[in-house]
Amino acid sequence: MPEIKNVAILGAGAMGAHYAACFFEAPEFSTALIASGERFDRLQQDGLVVNGKHYAIPVVNPEQAASPMDLIIVALKHHHLSSAVHDLRNFVGPDTLLLSVMNGLDSEETLTAAYGAEKVVYAMTVGIDAVREGNQVVYSKPGTVYFGEAENTILTERVRRIQSAFDRAGIAHTTPTDMIRWMWWKFMVNVGVNQASAVMRAPYSVFQTLPDAQAVMEALMREVIQVAQVAGVNLTEKDLTDWYKFLNTLSPQGKTSMLQDIEAGRKTEVELFAGKMVSLGRQYNVPTPVNQTILDIIHVLEKTAA
Predict the structure, then answer these.
(1) How much of the chain, in percent, has pLDDT values that exceed 70?
(2) What is the reported pTM?
(3) Is there a contact between 182 and 124 (Cβ–Cβ < 8 Å)?
(4) Neighbours of 100 (CB within 10 A)
(5) What domains are defined for the chain?
(6) CB 290 within 8 A of CB 220
(7) Residues 200-246 pLDDT 10s
(8) Helices marked H in the chain
(9) What gap in Å lies between CA 97 and CA 82, rounded to an integer?
(10) Distance between CA atoms of 220 and 3, rounded to whole angstroms?
């Protein structure tokens, strides 16, 4: 399979803008943003500003004829994926790899259903503290991409291709042996800090310093651990404790994506977190009262904002 040179990013939010800027900065890559409609016009006219630097990254319309990409990074909000997944059809060729840095446990399944498992690599991002306002993204910690096959005792060729591309673009990455466990760990983190921050309107400093805030976050996370263990995933109390090592490296003024959505009056990903947890709790017969309460609260916040 060829070396990755042509890269496209679907979703120009906080994470998508960061990765687009990294690849665009590296001269050996041809980098593009995929967008349509008003987003196409806005990105083409205004570009992106990442940590104060303006990037005029080319924008391609999914309806136009296009050459296949070597790597497509999907960085959408969960509720946009089902309508946008087919926007990639003109960019997927025989050697294209799809890597989703979206939250939750479901995006890989959606991409696989559309394009086949041979195209899709598991991924998640930990430790980025990016905040987006309009076309401007600011972060102090770029985080690390965790990616790979479900099991990575021996690295496949497609994992090595992406590792090489990330090295050349200066993107921090790691490939854990048990990727599924790490996907659940990130899910646990998001269920905890993303949702607690949204209902408290609290930046990371609150969870770094206040025991009451930590108690709510941990109660949400413990329900994930209980469900994961019944589902056969090796998630434990130690994983919750290890989260603080990451949390304490984040900018105290940084905000989770869900808090940013609440403040901007946008739809949140609560269905991906608390909604998914309530559904999994029913499936595995595990009570999830804390997530049910948070689900109800955020539904109210979304409706009153609307």
Answers:
(1) 99
(2) 0.88
(3) yes
(4) 26
(5) 6-177 (3.40.50.720), 180-305 (1.10.1040.10)
(6) yes
(7) 999 999 999 999 999 999 999 999 999 999 999 999 999 999 999 98
(8) 14-25, 37-46, 78-84, 107-115, 157-169, 179-189, 195-200, 204-209, 211-230, 237-247, 257-264, 276-284, 289-305
(9) 19
(10) 42
